[in-house]
Amino acid sequence: MVYNAGAMLTIKKLTKAHAGRTLFADTELVVNWGERIALVGPNGAGKSTLFRMILGEDTPDEGEIVMDEYAVVGYLPQEAGNPTDRTVLEIAMSTTPEMAEAVRTLRECEAKHDNTSDAYAHAMDTFIAHDGYQLEPKAKRILKGLAFKDEDFHRPAREMSGGWVMRAHLAQLLVAEPDLLMLDEPTNHLDLMSLLWFQRYLKNYPGAIFMISHDRDFMDELVETVYDIENAALVRYTGNYTRFLELKEERYLQLLAAWRNQQREIAHIEAFIDRFRSVASKAAQVQSRVKQLEKMERIEKPKQSRKVFKFIFPQPPRSMQRVIELHKVGQSYGDKRIYKNLDLLIERGQRVVLVGPNGAGKSTLLKILAGVIPIDEGTREVGTTTRIGYFSQMRAENLTPNFTVLEEIMEANHELREEEARAVLGSFLFRRQDVEKRVEVLSGGEKSRLSLVKFLVNPPNLLLMDEPTTHLDLMSVEALSQALKNYEGTLVFISHDVHFIRSLAEKTLHINQGTVTPYAGGYDYYLEKSGILDSRDAMDV
Fold first, then answer.
1. Which residues have C-beta within 8 Å of that of residue 260, sequence separation ≥ 6?
2. How far is 297 from 295, CA to CA, in rounded Å?
3. Please, are residues 122 and 48 in contact by the beta-carbon 8 Å criterion?
4. What is the number of alpha carbons within 13 Å of residue 24 lying toward its C-beta?
5. Does 319 score more than 70 pLDDT?
6. pTM (2 decimals)?
7. pLDDT of residue 537
8. What CA–CA distance (Å, rounded) separates 467 from 530?
9. For the residues of 56-100, what is the DSSP string, one character each?
10. Sorting pLDDT into bands at 50, 70 and 90, what band is 396?
11. What whole-number distance in Å separates Cα of residue 380 and Cα of residue 370?
12. Which of 280, 317, 350, 438 is found 20 to 30 A from 242 (Cα to Cα)?
C-alpha cells in the first residue's frame, strides 16, 4: 500500500456525555498514517465509547470526526459475535464481504462437486479479483502464527471456544491489512507464544495501529504515542507506556507548581485589596487589582494520578521445604492423554510460572496440584504444613452470595480493620458505594477481583493462580504484582501478561504435549535458553 503524508484521522472539538456524565469536552486527537497509538485511562473513562464514535457506531454531541476518504479501517472488538458455520480459514480470508461470500460459495460448490454452475464461476471470478490465490497461503501462515494447526483450518468456528474464534477474526484483520488497525484488548485471548508472534508481526505492520490494552509490556514494545483520557480531555504524550507514566508525573508536578504559584499570587492580591479597600488614596490601585483577579485565567488544581496502593498483607505460616510433590502422575481427558509419568517438586519460596500453548495442560496441572481433580495414576504428596489456595478461572466458587463486598473481605480476615479493607478494595476498583453491594449482584469481573482480594488478605502458604490479572486494569495489576512480591509463601501461576510474569517469576515450567521442561530462571531466561525467539516455525509468517 502507498500511504499519504499527514493525518489519517482527525478529531476536532469533540464533546460527548453519557448517563449524565461528561466523557469528553472540546477535545482533539490526530492519528497519522503509520502511527502506533495507545488510548489509556481508568475504567469507564470513555475509551470504548471513543472507538465506537470513530467507527460510526455512536455519535458525538458536538465536534467532528474526520477520516481520510481513502483510509480502510479494521476493528477487533473484545468479544467475537456468534460463531457460524464458516470455517476458520474462511473467516481469515473474508477480507471483504464480497470475498467472504465468494469463499463460502466455492466451498459449497466444491462439496457438491459443482464447478460448472454460474454461481461457481461468479464466485471464482471474485476470488481471483481479490487475489484469493495469494491470500490463502498468507491466511494459513497467520493462522499458524496464532497457534492454529493445519487440521483446524477447515473446522467450523461454532465448534471452537470464543477465544479461538477471536483469533480467527484477528487473523482476518491481519490478512486484510487495513490502513488503520483498531484493537480493543487484543492480547486477552492469546497464550504467550501467540502473543510473542503477534507482537513481532505488528512491529512490521505497514499501517497505523490504535489500541486499547491493559498489557503494559505489549504497549511498551509497540506504541510511540499515548493519548490519556484525563478530566474529559485527550492529552497526548510521545513515547511508549513507561515513558508516558514518567511524562504524566512530570506534567502533574508542573501543573501543581503553577497552581501553587497562582494561589500565592491570588492570596497576595486579595490581601492588598482587603488591606486598602477603605483607603481613598489607594482606590485606583485596589480597583486595578480587582480587575486583575477578574481577568485572571484560573488554573484548576490538578488531580494526582491514581497511585498503586501499597498494603502490607499478612504473611502465611511457614511451610516445610517440600511443599508439594507429584510422582509418576498420569492424567487423561477421555481418549486424550495429558500427562504420563509426571514428576514434579515444588519447594518453599519458589515463584513458578507455567507457560506453553493453549490446551497444553497448564490449567490441568494447576488443578492437579490444587487437588480439585483426581489423578488417574501416580501420587500427589502435600507437605504436612502446606495450606493450599487455588485461584481458578471460576472465580465465584469461594464467595458467599448474600454477603456484601466489605463483609466478604472482613470475614476472610477478622484481624483486618475496616479502613484497611476499604483501602485494599479501592486499589482493586471497588469504590465507596461498591463495597456495600451484595456478592450475588456483582459482574463476573467484580467477582474475580473480589476473590483475588480475599486471597490476598488471608493468603495460604501455597498459592496457585490461573490468570489472576484477568479483569484488572493496569494499576490493579501493579498493585497485585507488588503484593505478591512481598508474599513469603510459594507461588505457582499461569499468566499471559508479560510484565506481570517478569515481575514475579523466578522459575519457568514449559508445558507442551505432556512434557514439562523446567528452566531455572524467569521469563527472559526461558526465552533465551528455549530458543523460542529463533524458531522460524513459531515466529515467522
1. none
2. 6
3. no
4. 29
5. yes
6. 0.80
7. 46
8. 23
9. TSS--SEEEEEE-TT--EEEE-SS-----S-BHHHHHH-SSHHHH
10. low
11. 10
12. 350
Counting every residue, how long is the chain? 541
- The secondary element (H helix, E strand) that includes residue 165 is helix 162-176
What is the residue whose three cell numbers read 483426581?
374
Question: Does residue 382 carry a pLDDT above 60?
Answer: yes
Is residue 140 packed enough to be buried (19+ CB in 10 Å), middle (13-18) or exposed (0-12)?
buried
For residue 238, give the C-alpha cell: 510521545
Q: Which set of grid coordinates corresponds to residue 416? A: 483486618
Cα separation, 349 vs 321, in Å, equals 8
pLDDT band for position 533 (50/70/90)?
Answer: low
What is the pLDDT averaged over residues 522-534? 84
pLDDT of residue 536: 39
Helices 132-145 and 192-203 cross at an angle (nearest 10°) of: 130
Q: What mean pLDDT is reported for the chain?
A: 88
**What are the strands of the beta sheet with 322-333, ordered from one edge?**
336-347, 322-333, 377-382
What per-residue confidence (pLDDT) applies to 424?
85
Q: Are 212 and 38 in contact (CB under 8 A)?
A: yes
